[in-house]
Specification:
Layout (H helix, E strand, L loop, with lengths): L2 H16 L1 H25 L24 E6 L12 H22 L3 E5 L11 H14 L7 E5 L2 H4 L7 H11 L4 E6 L2 E6 L10 H21 L23 E3 L20 H4 L12 H11 L3 E4 L6 E4 L5 E4 L12 E8 L2 E8 L3 H33 L1
Parallel strand pairs: 1-2, 2-3, 5-6, 6-7, 7-9
Antiparallel strand pairs: 1-10, 4-5, 8-9, 10-11
């Protein structure tokens, strides 16, 4: 009874070997399937979750119910629109990002995903119908299981730099991605502050004043959690805020904190050497020094995570506050895109940089693969010819 599948497979193998067109199609499909699917698993399996501390402030174990938060962080996806980029470039980049993201989700199953802005490449230019189309595309490409929270931040390509930013663009992005200028969330006893970098220009524009007001409310909420505000002056003042057991927050934003350049960046995905010494322009390449000092003074974050430059960086600021800058997630901006896997507990955190497949490696596999296929046909043809002449 079990012999017929074996016989069938033998017949199929014989048929494939005898039919050159079928054999070519099978080999070509296998090559494409590896490069466009399997290779992502091979590469992303090499990245693992880092180990963070599993003890609370009093030294007792956190326990399984309070195990550290697993957060995946990426940025600068730059989904192409209708004005720039070739259709094949758009198709290729979106497939690569979708495949990399979905593979990472399947392999690593993060508790939360942070996407640090510049989701769209032409969000600052597109009309409302185009924007809605891009929002749907993004949600389809970066869909996640119901148990995984996805938090999105706004970038300059989504609504424009400060001089291009309008109330309408800001509100439609906030509606499409649930991303206000200032947002505080708490996950597994960790506090995160999510910011709109373009709203901290310091020029008293309406959106800037609105963001500063929201930021002040977050400051007061955390001060109430620390019981810094004097209860005697206004005993009911803190009652309007949701109580958050205090831990030093983590700030996430699109722009890096103020720095002069990328010259100190030494991560493997850092900017090319010739670009590292190019001076940063405050409010364009990074936050202003005033905005940076304000955030440090108000919140004393234990970690800052940013994006925008398309290159990775790790920098410790003068006040001993570390900052990770995440490279672009798109192969359009970088040959070796990366993302971060971070394990975060209330008292500790750990970060691993994860490299995605290099485009040059995939191209090389394609070249060698097709060369192998062609050579195998030529060799078999020569062997068959020799056999025929010998039989004569």
């Amino acid at each position: 009874m079990m012999a017929w599948p074996c016989k069938l497979s033998v017949v199929m193998c014989h048929y494939i070997r005898g039919n050159r067109i079928i054999r070519f199609l099978v080999l070509a499909f296998s090559l494409v399937f590896y490069c466009e699917y399997i290779h992502y698993y091979v590469v992303l399996l090499q990245c693992t979750w880092p180990q963070a501390g599993t003890y609370s402030f009093d030294g007792t174990p956190l326990g399984l119910e309070n195990k550290p938060l697993k957060a995946m962080i990426l940025a600068d996806t730059h989904l192409l629109g209708f004005k720039q980029g070739h259709w094949f470039d758009k198709l290729r980049r979106e497939w690569q990002m979708q495949r990399a993201f979905q593979t990472a989700m399947m392999l690593h199953s993060p508790d939360i995903v942070f996407i640090l802005g510049d989701l769209l490449d032409e969000g600052k230019w597109c009309n409302d119908s185009e924007f809605e189309y891009h929002v749907k595309r993004f949600h389809k490409m970066f869909s996640s299981p119901y148990k995984t929270d996805v938090q999105v931040l706004v970038g300059n390509h989504d609504i424009g730099f400060h001089y291009m930013m309008t109330h309408h663009k800001h509100k439609r992005f906030q509606k499409g991605f649930n991303s206000p200028s200032v947002k505080i969330i708490r996950k597994k006893k960790n506090i995160f502050i999510l910011l709109n970098s373009m709203s901290f220009e310091g020029d008293e524009c309406n959106l800037c004043k609105e963001a500063m007001g929201e930021l002040m409310e977050v400051k007061r909420q955390l001060e109430c959690s620390q019981k810094i505000l004097a209860d005697e002056a206004n005993p009911n003042y803190c009652k309007k805020y949701k109580h958050l057991p205090y831990v030093r927050p983590i700030i996430l934003q699109h722009f890096p904190m103020y720095r002069q350049s990328d010259e100190e960046c030494t991560t493997e995905d850092a900017a090319p050497f010739k670009d590292k010494s190019i001076p940063f322009k405050p409010k364009y390449d990074c936050l202003s020094e005033d905005a940076t000092n304000l955030l440090f003074d108000w919140f004393n974050p234990r970690l800052v995570v940013s994006a925008h430059t398309h290159h990775g960086c790790y920098k410790v600021h003068q006040n001993n506050i570390p900052e990770w800058t995440v490279a672009s997630f798109s192969w359009r901006n970088k040959n070796n895109p990366t993302f971060l896997l971070t394990t975060i507990s209330p008292t500790d955190y750990a970060v691993n940089q994860c490299f995605m497949p290099q485009e040059t490696t995939v191209i090389t596999i394609y070249i060698f693969g097709f060369v192998f296929i062609i050579l195998s046909f030529l060799i078999q043809k020569k062997v068959s010819k020799c056999s025929s002449e010998k039989n004569r």
